[in-house]
Each structure stands twice: as C-alpha cells, then as structure tokens.
Amino acid sequence: MAVGAGAGRVPAGRIGAPRVSAAWHDVALPDIGATRIDPYWIWANATAFDALGGRQAGAEPWISVVLELKRPVYQAAPSCPAHLCRIPEIHRVGGPGGLARTRFCTARVTEAFFDPASNPWLANVERFELGLPIVETRDGPREGPDHIGIVDPGDPTALRAVPVLAVIDTGLPFANERLMDAAGFSRCLGLWDQNGVDARPPRGLPYGMFARRSDVLAALGDHRVAAAGGRPEHESVLYAAMGLDTLRARWTHGSAVLGLAADRDDRAGAPNEGAPWYLGVELPRRSSDDTSGASLAVHALDALRFVIVAAERAAKEMRRLPGPIVVNLSYGRFAGAHDGSSMLASAIDELLDLYNDDSRRLAVVLSAGNGQLAEGHARVDVPTRGEVALTWRVLPDDHTPSFLELWPGGAAEDLVVVLTPPGGGPAVEVGPGRCVALREGDDCIATVGHHVRSAAGEGPMVLVAIAPTASHDVHRALAASGRWTVTLRNRGDRPLRVGAWIQRDDPFGPSRLRGRQSRFEDPAYARRDERGFVLDTDPADATGVVRRVDTLNPAATGRFTVVAGARVLGDGRVSRYSAAGEVGAGRRVPDLTAVADRSACRPGILTRGTFSGSVAVASGTSLAAPQVARWLVDLLAREAAPTTAPRAAWARELVAARLGVEPAQDPPRQEGPPRAAMLSGAVPRRGEAAALGAPRIPGVMDD
Questions:
Q1: 450-460: average pLDDT
Q2: Which residues are 393's β-sheet partners?
Q3: 121-158, pLDDT tens digit by residue?
Q4: Cβ distance 363 to 650 under 8 Å?
Q5: φ, ψ of residue 627 in degrees (nearest 5)
Q6: What is the pLDDT of residues 44-71, one digit of tens each?
Q7: φ/ψ of residue 237, rounded to 5
Q8: How far apart are CA 386 and CA 382, in angstroms?
Q9: With left for phi above 0 and alpha for psi between -120 and 50, is residue 243 left, alpha or beta?
Q10: DSSP category for residue 342
Q11: DSSP string of 123-145?
C-alpha cells in the first residue's frame, strides 16, 4: 500500500502536451481478502491523495473512509484497533430508534489498516470508500453523544411536535433576516461547520465547529447591539468574526438552497409560524470546488447522523415531542452505480429503514442531477468476439481530474478495455483484475483499474482516471486534452452490454477551482429534431451509444429517498438538463418536479443571496429539491406525520398520495410542437408526472 510520489517537475512548455516518453506500469492492488476496495483508491494512491486534499490530514497520515461492516457497528467497534482505525462515537453508540443495528459508519484509518497481516479486524469490513480529509478539532470535547430520551407523550407540559428541516450544503447564511420569524428570532436550531478547526465540535464527532441555538442567538444579539452603537452592521462582519469566509460572497450554493427551503412566509395562516425550524450542516469547501461528488459520502453520512441527534436533543430541550425530520441534500454525482447499490445510496436507505418507527419519522430529499444533456452516459452493445470504440473528449483548461466509469454487468471476465491517449500516446490493454498507471518518471498522468468486485456497487466496474489538463502550478504534471479512445473488446461467446458514465466536473456557484465537463463524442447523437427543437429525450429510432436515459444522480437511486427534478414555469415542461431514470427498466425515476427555470429564454429562478435583501438567479435540480423539502415540512406542520405501520418510504408515499399520482409511467410519445403538447395537459415523458406549484418567496418571485 505504498503511496506514490507527489507531483513531479515538468517544464512549463510541456504542460498538457502529449508525452512521448510516458509508459504504462502495472499497479499491485492491496491484498485485503474479501473486503471490497474503492476503485478511486488506485488514482488517489498514485497521486499522493492530491485530489482529496493530500493524505497528510493532521499530525498523522490518517485517511477518511466510509465503512460498511458485516455486522452492526456497535458490536464490531469495541474490538477495533484504535491505533489503526478511529470510529466517531456518534456511530459507535448506535443512536436513537433502530440505529443500533446500522452497519455503515465513517472512520479515519492509517495505511496499515488495510494490511490483513497487521490488522485482523479488517475481516469485519465488507467494503470501504474514500472521503475528503478530516482535520480533528484540537481543543474541543471528546465525549460521546448522550442518549436522547423522548419526551413522555403523556406529559401535559410537553409542547406539540414540530417538523425540523435540515439543510446539508455549503455557504449557509444563518444571519439572513428572511430565515427568522416575524419577531426577529432565528429559527436555526444549530449549525455545524465541518470546515471548523480549533473550535467546539458536535458531541460524538471529532471535527468541525458546532454552534447551538443559544450560540446563534448570542452572535446575532451581539451583532445587533454593535450595529445600534454605530459600528458596521453588514452581515459579512459577523461571518468574518466567526471564521465563515465563504459567506462573504454575494451568493453561495447554500444561500440559494436555504432561501427556497427556509425563507419566512409572511402570509396569514402560514405554517411553522412563518418560518420552519431548521438545522444547518456546512460541507467542506472542497465539495463545492470539486463537484464530482466522488468523496462526498464521509461528510454526508456524518451530517445525517448529526442531524438526527441534534434534532432529538433540540426537541427535548424545548420540551417538545420529537417531530419528523426532513433532510435536503442538493449534491450528487453523474457516475456511479445506478441501481441503488452505491455506498451513499445504501447508507441512506439503511438509515431510513432503521430510524423510521412508530414514534419517529425521517425523510431525505435529493436532487435528480443536471446531466440529462451532458453527453456523459453511453450504452454500448459489444458483439460476440467484437469491439466498440468510445471517444472521450477531455477539454483543455480543466483544473480537476476527469473520471470515466464502465459497468459491464455480470460478464466482467469477457471484457477487455484498451485506453489510447490523444496524439498517438502509448495505449494499454487492461483485462479483469489488472490495474495500470501511465507515468513519466514519478508523475502519474492516468490510471485504469478493472475491478471484478469493488466498493462502488454490486458487480464489476472499470475506472479510468485522467489528471487535470491545466493548473496554476507550473511544476505540476498534466494530462493531454483531446480525444481519448476507450475501446471495449468482448472475448466471450455472448453479446455484452456495458454502461459508461463520465463523472461530473462542472462547478456550481462561486468556486476557486474550475473543472470543465468532459463528454462522449458520438456522430449518431441527435441534439435537435427535424424542426430544430432541442431534444431532451432519446429519439425512438436512436442508433448511437450516447443516451439521455439513466442519468439520475446515483445517490438518488435508493428505494426510500424522495427525488426531485426541475421544470420550467412558463410551459410546465421538465427542464432539459434535469436528469432522468429509465422508465420501465427497473430504474428509479424522479418522484416529482419543482420549478427551477422561469421560461425557455429566462433560465433559472430568483432566490436569496447571502445577505438580507439580496437576491440571486440560479437554476438546477439542486434548487428543486429544497422546494420539495419545504413542501413536506409545511405539510407536516399542518398535519401529524403518518401513523400507519412504519415504512421507510413513507415520504415517497405521501408525495404520491397528496399530489394524486400513480407510480411514474411512460406516456405515449407526444406529437406536434412541445409547447402545444404541454398546454393540452400532457405529462412529461420522463416519469416526473407529479409537480409542485411555483416557489413562493414574497418580494422575490414576483418579477
């Protein structure tokens, strides 16, 4: 498990140029027995974990991972060697409800952890996935989370249960006046900044800065006193004092999401006393810089467990019965297992299955993704003893790595992948079980790993990783932009179907790093129909390999999450970029849509900026998801949560029941101009039959 050397020294004039002296070298996979390895480990290890922020996280070289264990965490954790693996207490103690039976947890491990000879405990691990580095908070409590007791339902002093909205995002402007009730008091129950260092972390978690409701109210009170005394009253001063530099931008991804999810409703009779109670989790800044989402699982799972404990603690402190929790997570990936077997999708499904019982309700709302027209998904039918070539266009000026995943189903032993760099670079043939790296000296330019079993999901997977094609560091080794050819060869006696997905690489909102989305090039891919309209679904007679179906965010392909797509307000059509599943093929499709674009010529909707009174224009399914989460919270504020037999999918069933739709079907293909078809009442052809009304933000959406 030796870590490769860091970035080499490449003359500035050769950056991004074809490397005639580069050569492929075999990479030995670690022998870790039956434990399934994260395919991204090969690339991370070959590049000294550079894309994950470096392997040196804190005083020791710890690596952040998500673990799926073969038995419940609380049973396996006591025998875990602390010098090799540290599992946060919030996962070790189980948690409320049925969470004691969970098998998913996060951990920080050393490289020796993956050596079965020195770590017999590794036999407890089914699979692992890498995450962004965690730097432990150096001066904060280390005690575990206290067990939260439920307020006695028969207690006459207990207040009624109220739903709690949790937003997991980046750049959450908690001091915005629109996030307060009519009396000017913040409705924020707590804020966990996962970037925080040298501060107080949440109970049971070793990193970040946690501000309780009392801390938030005190900070806001001090700020108002300072403003009354003639000092600067701009909210950026408060954010700067708290070390939240990302909130000094004009708008953030989190401000756009939180403005739609928790904005105060001043209309008479509005639920939640005008604004919902909410919890905020600030994801690491690198998650917005690199939008691939490939390393999101660690922080997302920690955030979900934190939200559950914090919401129950807040209910107890306010003498309230525990209310339903609705979580909004507007992040996702393009590539990954699209059958619900990815690490994050499986962990969320287990969480929903175990937590929901007769007295508790938890829902997770996810965005469908924006990859419908990204030309990032291909479906390749490789004939018997034949081959098919894919052209992967990697763009110049891309400051982030590019990743391509190939999923050959159950016939991995018959698939051989040949990767050829642009400009006549050296090609390599990779069969099952082989991993290789393209190097010039100590610099890693690309890796290819053919994994028969991997942690990425059920079934085999091939991962191709390519270095950035641009960098501000003139000494960094870069890959060549242009056409990379991926040839799929079938050595078997039966046809082989391979699904290919390119990982997301486009930034959303203000970001320091600028990725550029690579794509497949297919001459048979039809972008427009014969009338010149942009096609947002595959034609019935499509012959190319690039497809628009099955582009859903892999984290949203689980069985129990609520998935939100985007649509246009003007004509009701599903937004062209809004990702879809595959109707009738056993794949998940979005449960409903919400408005994320005003019209075809006015993309995006107006939402809140970072500071009070400011607005921003943004679009994407990440803005549809918070509207669905707010709709659920408002509905639950008016009515009690469903009290039928506990079902993990209660939120999906509630959406279907309230919006009067059946499980998504594929309606007949509509003829005539698209706008006329929609005005006649036709439903979308991608499965998103249910739709929410237009977002209601007083004074913002009235344009």
A1: 92
A2: 483, 519
A3: 999 999 999 987 666 665 444 444 554 555 555 555 55
A4: yes
A5: -65, -40
A6: 888 877 766 555 444 557 889 999 999 9
A7: -65, -45
A8: 6
A9: left
A10: S
A11: GGEEEEEE-------SSS--PPP
What angle separates helix 650-658 from helix 621-638, to the nearest 10 degrees?
A: 90
At residue 77 the predicted structure's pLDDT band, cuts being 50, 70 and 90, is very high
**Helices 621-638 & 253-262 angle (0-180, nearest 10):** 30
Residue 663, pLDDT score: 39
Compute the C-alpha angle 226/232/238, nearest 5°: 70
144, 203 contact by CB (below 8 A) = yes
Strands 362-367 and 562-568, bridge-based pairing: parallel
Distance CA 635, CA 102 (A): 29
Sheet holding 325-329, edge to edge: 209-212, 188-193, 277-282, 164-169, 325-329, 362-367, 562-568, 592-597, 690-691
CA gyration radius, the chain: 25
d(CA 521, CA 500): 13
pTM of the entire structure? 0.89
Is 609:581 a contact under the CB 8 Å cutoff? no
Of 545, 523, 526, 546, nearest to 535 (Cα)? 526
Nearest to 293 by CA among 505, 579, 517, 463: 505
Using DSSP's 3-state secondary structure scheme, residue 228 falls into helix
Which tokens go with 449?
Answer: 């790993």
- On the CB side of 383, how many CA atoms lie within 13 Å of its CA? 3
Which residue matches tokens 């206290």?
Answer: 146
Question: CA 486, CA 498: separation in Å to the nearest integer?
Answer: 12
What are residue 89's phi and psi, to 5 degrees? -60, -30
Cα dihedral across residues 12, 15, 18, 23: positive or negative: positive
Which residue, chain included where needed, has tokens 């955030």? 303
CA distance 267 to 277: 17
Task: Tell me how far apart the alpha carbons of residues 618 and 260 are, in angstroms, rounded to a whole number.
Answer: 11
- Nearest CA to 178 out of 258, 271, 272, 268 is that of 258
Can you tell me whether residue 654 is helix, strand or coil? helix
CA distances in angstroms from 368 to 376, 553, 574, 687, listed in the order given? 15, 5, 12, 12
DSSP, collapsed to helix, strand or coil, labels residue 302 as helix
* DSSP structure class, residue 645: S
| DSSP sequence for 30-52 | P--TTPBPPTHHHHHHHTTTGGG
In sequence order, which residues have a C-beta less than 8 Å from that of residue 386 and are 6 or more positions away?
489, 490
Query: What are the tokens at 287?
Result: 């998650």
The CA–CA distances, whole Å, from 359 to 322, 323, 354, 645 equal 8, 9, 12, 11
Q: Is 483 helix (H, G, I), strand (E, B) or coil?
A: strand
Instruction: pLDDT band for 525, please (50, 70, 90 cuts).
Output: very high
Highest mean pLDDT: which range of 7-11, 245-249, 648-652? 648-652
Q: How far is CA 578 from CA 188, 426, 590, 622, 685, in A?
A: 31, 38, 9, 10, 12
If we measure between CA atoms, which residue out of 667, 658, 657 comes closest to residue 688? 667
H helical segments located in 160-296: 213-228, 235-241, 253-262, 286-289
